[in-house]
């Protein structure tokens, strides 16, 4: 699971961060799902996601893999697709096309609930279920600072390391890497492809002036 | 994971990639602390060692250490579920499976998240607390289920207790009127563990993505709140098998 309901940050920042999943159900609609999922991915491309990974390939959009390679990998029944949009209107375009295609595969959207509610109403979609985040519990004193978690929680499995985020802030601040290139590097460990590099670049731009760094 | 000391040039490039800071200098070379390493393979996959000194440990698939790999590497397929990831399809396909019914709430305890990970000994504290609260059925398709030695007590298999994982998910479902009790249990056990967990509550919504008031009231009654962002199943799936 991708933990996408626990993404942290300001409302303004989360307005530019929507995760969309294409998810067949084992035992219910796995058989024959591969061509349907491939079709849905073709539709997603037209809407302009900022990151995407199918589980059949596990390489994100910035790894050098081509769109054709991604599509050609979707031959395995049950392939799941994870994608991110940085704009409500792009997400809307994707949902319009997915609804029209009517392929019968489950679609999940993670984002600000009020925005998803608005979109569903505009498109005549009746959402089935909501998964609410009730927060972090236990030794929260051991967590990295909240501003670092705005980056790390974009990877649900926790493999975008807080140390790597701090290192990237240092590298941006010392001019060794641009905000965008730093964000692409931060996106690489996330094998679910739901790290949002556009939002990450904005966060690097916003946070790096706040940190004192060692030039080493 | 391991680093071949004779190959490592001590550049330190891999060190910040480790989510748990298990890679440190030992003299002029980087070394991975085997006790701290979760076997998530992020260093191997993403750090791009300039001399290819990073490799899988020879014992990574030995039981019970293999649990670290299955629960910590998102691209590893878990042997008991046949799917990648720590949990099940849960709310993502509920429009097709109806695993969580109209009068129920699915509760997921996302262990070790974000980023800290958790010892299996601490996971057992949570499974025991849930069992004491009267919930003896953990989702059978979740890999945690295969770790349970005794459903009545929530005890896990003793040989696993020395291991630790970057993330795992305990998935249960309760009747809506039981939600408050299980949330209270989780708040209590949170004081006993040496790490963190996130709580998810998934429920079928009313028309217009209206969240049932009974569910919200239970959350409020335990002094909890919900984040403004959530995961929504759009209801576009259907079964054909």
SSE inventory with pairings:
The complex is a heterodimer of chains A (216) and B (241).
Chain A: H1 11-14, E1 18-23, H2 33-47, E2 51-54, H3 67-73, E3 81-85, H4 88-101, E4 106-112, H5 113-123, E5 129-138, H6 146-152, H7 162-173, H8 179-187, H9 197-207
Antiparallel strand pairs in A: 1-3, 1-4, 2-3
Chain B: E1 2-3, E2 23-26, E3 29-32, H1 42-46, E4 54-55, H2 66-72, H3 94-97, E5 104-111, E6 118-119, H4 120-132, E7 148-150, E8 155-156, E9 164-165, E10 168-175, H5 179-189, E11 196-204, H6 213-221, E12 229-233
Antiparallel strand pairs in B: 1-4, 2-3, 5-10, 5-11, 6-9, 7-8
Brief description of this entry?
Chain A is built from 9 helices and 5 strands, in the order H-E-H-E-H-E-H-E-H-E-H-H-H-H. Chain A has 216 residues and is of the alpha+beta class. In chain A, helix 7 (162-173) runs antiparallel to helix 8.
Structure characterization notes:
The complex is a heterodimer of chains A (216) and B (241). Helices cover 42% and strands 15% of the residues of chain A. Chain A folds into 2 domains: 120 residues, Alpha-Beta Plaits, CATH 3.30.70.1110; 71 residues, no CATH class. The model of chain A has no long low-confidence stretch (mean pLDDT 94). In chain A, strands 2-3-1-4 form a 4-stranded antiparallel beta sheet. In chain A, α7 packs antiparallel against α8. The N and C termini of chain A lie far apart (37 Å). The longest helix of chain A is centred in the N-terminal third of the chain and has 15 residues. Chain A has 216 residues and is α+β, with helices and mostly antiparallel strands. In chain B, strands 10-5-11 form a 3-stranded antiparallel beta sheet, with helices on one face. In chain B, strands 1-4 form a two-stranded antiparallel sheet. In chain B, a hairpin with a 4-residue loop joins β7 and β8. The longest helix of chain B is centred in the middle third of the chain and has 13 residues. With 241 residues, chain B is α+β, with helices and mostly antiparallel strands. The termini of chain B are far apart. Chain B has 2 domains: 60 residues, Alpha-Beta Plaits, CATH 3.30.70; 137 residues, no CATH class. The relative contact order of chain B is 0.15. The chains are: A alpha+beta (216), B alpha+beta (241). At the A-B interface, β1, α4, β4, α5 and β5 of A face α1, α3, β5, α5 and β11 of B.
């Amino acid at each position: 699971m991708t933990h996408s309901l626990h993404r942290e940050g300001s409302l303004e920042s989360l307005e530019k961060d929507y995760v969309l999943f294409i998810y067949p159900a084992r035992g219910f609609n796995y058989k024959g799902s591969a061509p349907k999922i491939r079709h849905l991915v073709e539709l997603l491309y037209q809407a302009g996601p900022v990151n995407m990974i199918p589980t059949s390939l596990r390489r994100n959009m910035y790894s050098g893999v081509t769109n054709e390679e991604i599509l050609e990998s979707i031959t395995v029944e049950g392939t799941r697709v994870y994608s991110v949009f940085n704009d409500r209107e792009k997400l809307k375009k994707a949902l319009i096309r997915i609804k029209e295609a009517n392929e019968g595969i489950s679609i999940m959207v993670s984002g600000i609930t009020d925005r998803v509610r608005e979109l569903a109403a505009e498109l005549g979609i009746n959402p089935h279920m909501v998964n609410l985040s009730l927060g972090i519990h236990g030794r929260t004193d051991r967590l990295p600072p909240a501003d670092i978690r705005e980056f790390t929680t974009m990877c649900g499995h926790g493999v975008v390391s807080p140390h790597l985020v701090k290192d990237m802030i240092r590298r941006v601040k010392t001019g060794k890497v641009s905000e965008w290139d730093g964000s692409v590097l931060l996106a690489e460990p996330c094998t679910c492809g739901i790290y949002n590099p556009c939002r990450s670049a904005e966060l690097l731009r916003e946070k790096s002036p706040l940190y004192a760094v060692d030039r080493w | 994971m391991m680093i071949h000391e004779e190959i490592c040039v001590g550049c330190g490039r891999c060190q910040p990639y480790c989510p748990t800071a298990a890679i440190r200098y030992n003299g002029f070379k980087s070394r991975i602390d085997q006790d701290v390493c979760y076997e998530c393979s992020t260093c191997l996959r993403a750090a791009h060692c300039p001399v290819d000194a990073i490799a899988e440990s020879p014992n990574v698939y030995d039981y019970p250490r293999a649990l670290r790999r299955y629960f910590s590497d998102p691209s590893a397929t878990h042997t008991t579920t046949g799917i990648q990831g720590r949990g099940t399809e849960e709310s993502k396909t509920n429009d097709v499976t109806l695993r969580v019914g109209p009068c129920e709430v699915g509760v997921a305890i996302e262990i070790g998240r974000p980023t800290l990970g958790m010892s299996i000994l601490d996971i057992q504290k949570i499974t025991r607390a849930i069992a004491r609260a009267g919930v003896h059925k953990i989702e059978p398709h979740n890999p945690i289920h295969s770790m349970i030695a005794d459903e009545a007590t929530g005890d896990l298999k003793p040989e696993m207790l020395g291991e630790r994982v970057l993330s795992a998910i305990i998935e249960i479902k309760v009747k809506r009127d039981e939600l408050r009790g299980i949330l209270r249990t989780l708040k209590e056990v949170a004081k006993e563990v040496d790490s963190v967990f996130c709580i998810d509550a998934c429920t079928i919504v009313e028309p217009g993505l209206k969240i049932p008031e009974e569910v919200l009231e239970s959350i409020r009654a335990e002094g909890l709140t919900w984040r403004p962002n959530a995961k929504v199943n759009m209801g576009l799936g259907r079964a054909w098998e």
